[in-house]
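## Example record

The block below lists the input lines for one assembly entry, exactly as stored, with component labels intact.
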Amino acid sequence: MPKRFLSLCFHSLSTDWLVIKKPELKGKAFVLAIPERGRMLVHASSKEALDRGIFPGMVVADARALFPSLEVFDHDPQLEGRLLTALARWCIRYTPVSAVDFPDGIILDISGCAHLWGGETAYLEDICFTLRNKGYSLSAAIADTIGAAWAIARYGQGIRIAAPERQRECLLPLPPASLRLEPNLLQLMKKLGFKNIGQFIDLPPSTLRRRFGEGLLVRLGQALGTEYEFVEPVQPVKSYREELSCMEPIFTLTGIELALKRLLEVLCRRLVKEGKGLRTGVFSGLRVDGEIVHISIGTGSASQRPSHLFKLFELKLSTLAPGMGIELFTLEAPLVEDMEGVQESLWDAVNHDQQAIVELLDNIAGKVGMDAIHRYLPQEYHWPERSIKPVPFLQGQPDKPWPSGISRPLHLLPQPEPISVMVHLPDYPPRHFRYKGKIYKVVKADGPERIEQEWWLQNGPPRDYYRVEDEEGIRYWVFRLGLYGEGEPQWFLHGLFA
Amino acid sequence: MKAMDGKKAVLQRLKAEIMALEKFPMPKSAQQASLGLGPMEASFTGNNFPVGVVHELISRDSIDAVSTNGFIAALLGKLMRKKDYCLWISNQRTIFPPGLSTFGVRPDRFIFIDIKKESDVLWAVEQGLKCSGLAAVIGELKDITFAQSQRLQLAVEKSRVTGFLHRYQPRSEHALACATRWKISSLPSESIEGLPGLGFPRWNVALIKVRNGRPGSWRMEWRDGGFHPVAVEDLLERANDQHYA
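Predicted structure tokens for the full assembly:
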């Protein structure tokens, strides 16, 4: 799934917060000040103070001179960090991956979330509206990359959402500062007259690297999506992973089995609690010599039963070489799936049977491979090779009945085999045919059943199928490819009837 | 007369005891319903086709193999209930699933396991026979030792799954711990009431060995979802005026 990111930018986080905390400050000019080199400096000023020309970085004494009734509060240097973390946690209601973006923003990974709010526009509106209602002034933007979302949120004039894979167009008119560059680099660009990204985005990378260093290329790549960038979510997505460290290195099979059983129990308990089931599992051991050995299993459908999973691992345990001993065991489930409660199935004998079959198939697949197991459903094609479709395991029931009234052979040759025939008349079944050097005399015959090529799939002559029986009572399925009168038709043997 | 009846009852009881000792599953009264195998049923104890045992079927060439698989499918058509699944384990599968529906079974109830290594087939069959959720397990394999067949027998005693071992061109036909041994070959079909074309599938069914029963040989036709014996006169007649239809 293509990634989508939302960047939130708070314009005056600390003052907004103070107003929320002390509503009586609303509409008043006040500043937050921090001591620096023996004097008090304005760190943040409220909107009213800004209007009166009091900007961050001013000395408080100068500000007081400008506006004597200015209220001054001490600023806590940790405040912004705490506030952003709290807000990022609050944002988890919108997406599970929410990260703090110092000093004034939040990055949300919203891939696959927006449709729940009825599209990205509604999603963005909802977040902004709720936060503004709380009293924060902010801007926000959505784009394919963190860099582009960041840039558009802060510098995009009127644009809020960059359509998928259109971040380049949105970036062109933005100033270089929107790329999150170092101040001295920005100064250099200003000196050289680069006012927007469009002026240098198409310059050869080698030139850019020579003039501005690697940093610019990385930032540009992050904004365009060619360079990977990751965020650190405030609440890490919990992986299904359990560890077991041992007092002493373990190298006996019994010991390893015990460790596996214990890990499986812990993991399965968690899976049951969260209504999940394991699809793939990796059991690994960290050896004394620093090597990591592992075995992995896969299941046909989600499972949370320790005994069943143990059986699957058991088949492969012999390939786990303990060497001088294993110090640390880990069991991880990289792929889990939602699972309906197994409780119901206890009442339902059929479901219970199915569970047993699924576990059996997992067991077999563990030894001979998943691709050895086949089950087929009918498919709406007449062409014999296409009339069935393979489905995984026990999933899926036929949505239409198996065709009745037409006879299909019990054995089908992997490939139709050419035969040479003697035919009375065109459109008659063969009188006798020769297959692999032996002549079979046809005694009875049925047909033809003409099956045309499915023209939307492939072109070619039709097949005319005949059921024929020879003197010994063996029933064959033969067909003629093509028609007499239109080239030389060929005959094939395709199957055998019981 | 009363004494006779008493003797009969004693004999019956003793028979049942012996069977129990031999671990031969006695059909439960609930399953007493006949499978509709026609005259073949008379060969089995209590006129019931044994389920929950392993059957052995031998075919000597690929032509016989088709008839044998057809016969198995026909038996499954009688055995399987609507929601049952069964396992078809083979090394080189030739079965075309839609062909199974001729014999009254739904092809989507079959799970085919196509194993590359022949030695794994037996392992998979044993695993399948241990799984009581299945109705039947069909294993296509060549050779099996007596000890291996005993393992299968032990598995079905617990799980009550019916097993079919289809042995294709076995090296020797030694004794196995299977309940029956069959040989099936195809017979010329009979055109339907003088209509041209092929008739219904016909087989020569030979029950060579059967535990606690009488071996026999029949000519059977699969028609209208059931087995029907073929009168020998029909065959003779057919042989006399063999003609091209």
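Chain A touches chain B through 56 residues (CB under 8 Å). The first strand of chain A starts at residue 5 and ends at 10.
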